[in-house]
Specification:
Layout lengths: L2 H35 L1 H6 L1 H30 L3 H26 L6 H12 L1 H14 L3 H28 L6
Helix pairs in contact: 1-3, 3-6, 4-5, 4-6, 4-7, 6-7
């Protein structure tokens, strides 16, 4: 593959990430303005508003999937680039157990930190899909191993989170 062609592809992927980030920031800002303009509605039907927040989160994650898929196909033949990508995925997967820990510590789960932790934990299924897709397309042993570690971290966080719901939830008599 021509080096200038791959640079152009990487620049297009970077531009698409920047565009998606700008659109996402605009959408989150508009949602914030809705909370400011209609505080009584948000308080009266908080569950519906939380559902809207979750739908916005899923939409933003789906927006980020398009440039991520393009990135994977662009760097698929470069071992160093794919290994760097796998390291970034491992770093991303480490944020899931950190978010779970932050939710347990009362000082750290206040204000927007708690919301960010909740949103990160809700994103585990989407991150798992990205990890599976990336591992399926990799050709290199080191990158495959790093992505496998990321899958293990993400999957164990999901399993332990679900198990903790059953273990620490109070029954009807508790």
């Amino acid at each position: 593959m021509d080096a200038s062609y791959s640079r152009l592809q990487l620049r297009l992927v970077a531009a698409s990430y920047a565009t998606v980030a700008a659109v996402s920031a605009l959408l989150v800002y508009r949602r914030y303005l809705q909370y400011l303009r209609y505080p009584q509605d948000a308080a009266a039907s908080s569950g519906m508003w939380a559902g809207g927040d979750l739908m916005l989160e899923v939409f933003i994650f789906l927006l980020f999937l398009a440039p991520t898929a393009a990135l994977v196909f662009v760097i698929r033949k470069s071992e160093s680039a794919y290994t760097a990508y796998a390291k970034a995925l491992l770093g991303l997967s480490l944020t899931a157990p950190l978010s779970a820990v932050f939710l347990v510590i009362p000082v750290l789960n206040q204000w927007y930190w708690g919301d960010l932790c909740i949103f990160r934990l809700f994103a585990i299924p989407i991150v798992l899909m990205v990890l599976l897709f990336s591992r399926w397309l990799t050709r290199f042993a080191r990158a495959r191993r790093l992505i496998s570690y990321a899958l293990l971290v993400e999957g164990l966080t999901l399993v332990l989170g679900i198990a903790s719901l059953f273990l620490f939830s109070k029954g009807p008599n508790g």
